[in-house]
Amino acid sequence: MRLLLPVAIAAFIATPALAEEVTVALDWTPNTNHIGLYVAEALGLYEKAGLDVTILPYSDTASGTLVANGIAQFGVLSAVGFFTQKAAGADLVATYGVVQTETGRVVFLADREEIQSPKDLDGLVYGGFGSAWEEALISTIIKADGGEGSFETVTLGTSAYDALANRAVDFTLEVYTWEGVKAERDGPAQRAFRYADFGVPDQHTTFIGATGAWLEANPETATAFISATRAGYAHAVENPDEAADILVAASDGFLTDRDFVRASLEELITGNYLKGVDGAIGTIDAGKINAIGSFFFDAKMLRDGNGTPLADKPDFSAWYSNAYLGE
């Protein structure tokens, strides 16, 4: 049966002169941040754009590393990973903003009545994930509320969520649209502080990107891929039930709780993450890039290939491009 695409979706898609194979590396196991990729694949949007797209399964190698080394043409990139790898010399360019606003937050159990504002986190135990971003982030939030920014860190990785539930740590960080939605459904009850309310710039927490060299050599293929991907995300926003079913089916058994996937997607939609309040889908905001890049620079998180903090703040306008969205 021939698939007829809505005009609004078809308008996003640009077809390259020649069909190309394109490989995409994920930044984590399949989740709703990736839903536009799987929707575009399932609806034949990549095929219509003349592309043969392979979505690589998540591996221990960072997606940015796979892209920088030519193993994948595109990768889903966390903002922290992208900025730090770029500063260290990786040829990476962000070409699509998966989310239009920050999805992370500081969380703690709802019954911790002694925690009323970030300064109350001073001296408590943080269950962390081992990145330099966490120290800069949390200390900034606490200091913005008048605290000292001092806390104890126990590096736990994803087991931090169990540790929080078991009261082995006092607070941690989570992606609201995934772990936060799960906690709201399954407990334990949480309260949270939004980063942007306490001195941390709002940001696109996830990008899709490629190398500058590949983009320069393959502009039509890049535009075909990004515009078809954008159409996939747009379709997911307008058709969440169908999109949730597609993601679950494409996860090869990794995602089994369809209701949870649907709830996560609902928050991404109603919270204006996948589609901004201004209607933007995939567009990278210059102000947000510069603000969070400057934050990383000031926190000395941006280091060269030798591990030395950059002496001069980069021109962040050269680190991204909206030229491939197909508008």
TrEMBL record:
Cleavable signal peptide: 1-19
SUPFAM superfamilies per UniProt: Periplasmic binding protein-like II
Keywords of this entry: Iron, Metal-binding, Pyridoxal phosphate, Signal, Thiamine biosynthesis, Transferase
Quaternary structure (record): Homodimer.
Similarity comment text for this entry: Belongs to the NMT1/THI5 family.
Pathway assigned to this chain's UniProt record: Cofactor biosynthesis; thiamine diphosphate biosynthesis
Reaction catalysis annotation: N(6)-(pyridoxal phosphate)-L-lysyl-[4-amino-5-hydroxymethyl-2-methylpyrimidine phosphate synthase] + L-histidyl-[4-amino-5-hydroxymethyl-2-methylpyrimidine phosphate synthase] + 2 Fe(3+) + 4 H2O = L-lysyl-[4-amino-5-hydroxymethyl-2-methylpyrimidine phosphate synthase] + (2S)-2-amino-5-hydroxy-4-oxopentanoyl-[4-amino-5-hydroxymethyl-2-methylpyrimidine phosphate synthase] + 4-amino-2-methyl-5-(phosphooxymethyl)pyrimidine + 3-oxopropanoate + 2 Fe(2+) + 2 H(+)
Official protein name in the record: Thiamine pyrimidine synthase
SsuA/THI5-like domain sequence ranges: 31-243
GO BP field: thiamine biosynthetic process
Database matches in Gene3D superfamilies: Periplasmic binding protein-like II
Function of the molecule: Responsible for the formation of the pyrimidine heterocycle in the thiamine biosynthesis pathway. Catalyzes the formation of hydroxymethylpyrimidine phosphate (HMP-P) from histidine and pyridoxal phosphate (PLP). The protein uses PLP and the active site histidine to form HMP-P, generating an inactive enzyme. The enzyme can only undergo a single turnover, which suggests it is a suicide enzyme.
GO molecular function: metal ion binding; transferase activity
InterPro entries reported for this sequence: NMT1/THI5, SsuA/THI5
